Amino acid sequence: MSGLRLFVLTMLFLLLPLTVLAGDPVVGKNIYTRHCMGCHGASGAGMMPGLPNFSRGEQLFKSDNELMDTVRNGNGVMPSFGGLISEEEIRDVVAYLRTFL
Ligand code: HEC
Fold first, then answer.
1. Measured distance CA(31)–CA(25) in Å, rounded
2. If you take atom 29 of ligand 1, which residue's CA is the nearest one?
3. Model confidence pLDDT, tens digit, residues 17-53
């Protein structure tokens, strides 16, 4: 194997965990449409009073971990999705929320 090919393969291998950790907004969009859109709306603006307007960045100043906590455990009227969708799907849907801004 040439040195260059080995180098490229090594770099791909090293980058793989990073892409897994980052969350996939394309997958997240499907999850959002299925589980979240009824309350949070297609544009993220919220369908009723008391919801954060994601298209104005409300609540999105929080870290991924904080947002994932809310999705996992709920918050008042906001239902908990832990057990309903996987940890990876929670990460993906949070990545999708960040695309509203
Ligand atoms: C039954 C309606 C409803 C559904 C379904 C729903 N939410 Fe919410 N969500 C709310 C409400 C209401 C709030 C505001 C909660 C508060 O501040 O008391 C909220 C708040 C949030 C927040 C703000 C986080 C925070 O720390 O305050 C995030 C992020 C969020 N929702 C994401 C989601 C995601 C992702 C889904 C789908 C997996 C989802 N929500 C589904 C009603 C809903």
1. 10
2. 67
3. 665 568 999 999 999 999 999 999 999 999 999 999 9
Q: How far is the CA of 94 from the centre of ligand 1 (A)?
A: 11
- Tell me the residue type at 39: C
- Domain 23-97, CATH: 1.10.760.10
Indicate if ligand 1 lies below 6 Å from the C-beta of 49. no
Residue 53, token pair as written in the block: 């307007």
Separation of 40 CA from ligand 1 center, angstroms? 7
For residue range 54-79, list pLDDT tens digits in order. 999 999 999 999 999 999 999 999 99
Q: Is residue 54 in contact with ligand 1, taking CB distance under 6 Å?
A: no
How many other C-beta atoms are found inside a 10 Å radius of the C-beta of residue 69?
16
